[in-house]
């Protein structure tokens, strides 16, 4: 990690509890000659004096050397896709308010230790694969999105079941008749994938997971493919009332039409994530999933 001169600060929407921490944090950084760059909504939360420059969520990755997220995993995931879209390598540090997150796993007590480690250049950095999903309609590009956890193709409320054709590297792999299909990264394996009965995959494993949601055929099982795979999903729609949607990290999405194709592959750059030194991935899993408790 290069020299840190500017730290971008972003908090969860309306997280009033963060105001005091943010003000203290800005003072702490500035005492160390590091500029605190506030995201606009976050600045309003703290009540920054007017006239102090702030930046939008979309511009934050290009305006700092480290992004510090205060909130939960949702805020973190939204920022991760903005970092990917900006084409920067800016690392991200997630601090949780409330319960320990899978991504915002630095606690408030550990915040300054973690920041100190970043500024001194010996922070524990992990790279996490991100997905890039392109939707094509009649062969033309329609959407181009990034996801840290998953790309999910799912049925609308009125559709009984959907039919999806899945190919990898141009070769047909399976036809899924189900409520949907989750295409997840190892980071996303502990999110929706887990609820749908998919495996937990350690983030250091270079793989993409394909997990059917409530499959109609018992032979449709989760499949793990190499991280370099090009995955192509095509909804096979014939009924007039069939509704199929694609969502990216559960935060945005759009409806699909017959003959649309979603092409999913590993994003060009991984996300660089600052981890808490004190906690291994397995400790985090045990705490979050209550493994080993009686």
Description:
- This protein is an alpha+beta fold.
- The chain folds into two domains: 6-129 and 270-289, Probable inorganic polyphosphate/atp-NAD kinase, domain 1 (Rossmann fold, 3-Layer(aba) Sandwich), CATH 3.40.50; 131-266, Tumour Suppressor Smad4, CATH 2.60.200.30.
- The protein contains six helices and 18 strands.
- It has helices at residues 19-31, 40-46, 73-86, 111-120, 192-195, 281-289; strands spanning 6-11, 35-38, 66-71, 92-96, 124-128, 131-137, 140-147, 150-155, 162-168, 171-178, 180-184, 207-213, 223-226, 231-235, 244-248, 252-256, 261-266, 271-275.
- The strands form four sheets. It has a six-stranded antiparallel β-sheet. A six-stranded antiparallel β-sheet has the order 13-12-11-8-15-16, with no helix packed on it. Strands 2-1-3-4 form a four-stranded parallel β-sheet, with helices on both faces.
- Helix 1 links the parallel strand 1 and strand 2 (35-38).
- The mean pLDDT is 92.
**What is the number of strand segments?**
18
CATH superfamily of the largest domain: Probable inorganic polyphosphate/atp-NAD kinase, domain 1
In angstroms, what separates the terminal alpha carbons?
41 Å
* Secondary structure category: alpha+beta
Mean pLDDT: 92
Q: Biggest sheet, open or closed, and with what strands and sense?
A: 6 strands, antiparallel
**Beta strand %:** 35-45%
Say what oligomer this is.
single chain
For the largest beta sheet, what order do the strands appear in spatially? 7-6-17-14-9-10
N-to-C order of helices and strands:
EHEHEHEHEEEEEEEHEEEEEEEH
């Amino acid at each position: 990690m290069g020299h840190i001169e500017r730290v971008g600060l972003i908090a969860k929407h309306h997280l009033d509890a963060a105001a005091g921490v943010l003000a203290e944090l800005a003072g702490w950084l500035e005492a160390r000659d590091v500029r605190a760059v506030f995201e606009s909504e976050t600045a309003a939360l703290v009540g920054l004096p007017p006239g102090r420059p702030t930046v939008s969520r979309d511009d934050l990755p290009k305006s700092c050397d480290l992004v510090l997220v205060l909130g939960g995993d949702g805020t973190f995931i939204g920022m991760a896709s903005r970092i990917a879209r900006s084409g920067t390598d800016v690392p991200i540090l997630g601090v949780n308010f409330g319960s320990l997150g899978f991504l915002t796993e630095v606690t408030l007590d550990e915040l300054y230790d973690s920041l100190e480690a970043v500024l001194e250049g010996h922070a524990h950095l992990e790279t996490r694969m991100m997905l890039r999903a392109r939707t094509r309609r009649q062969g033309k590009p329609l959407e181009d999105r990034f996801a840290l956890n998953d790309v999910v193709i799912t049925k609308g409320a009125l559709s009984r079941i959907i039919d999806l054709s899945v190919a990898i590297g141009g070769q047909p792999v399976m036809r899924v008749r189900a409520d949907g299909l989750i295409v997840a990264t190892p980071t996303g394996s502990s999110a929706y994938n887990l609820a749908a009965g998919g495996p937990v995959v350690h983030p250091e494993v270079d793989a993409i997971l394909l997990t059917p949601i409530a499959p109609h055929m018992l032979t449709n099982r989760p499949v793990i493919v190499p991280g370099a795979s090009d995955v192509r999903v095509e909804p096979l729609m014939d009924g007039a009332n069939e509704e199929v949607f694609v969502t990216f990290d559960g935060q945005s999405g759009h409806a699909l039409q017959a003959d649309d194709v979603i092409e999913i592959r590993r994003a060009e750059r991984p996300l660089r994530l600052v981890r808490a030194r004190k906690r291994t991935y397995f400790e985090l899993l045990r705490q979050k999933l209550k493994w080993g408790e009686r």
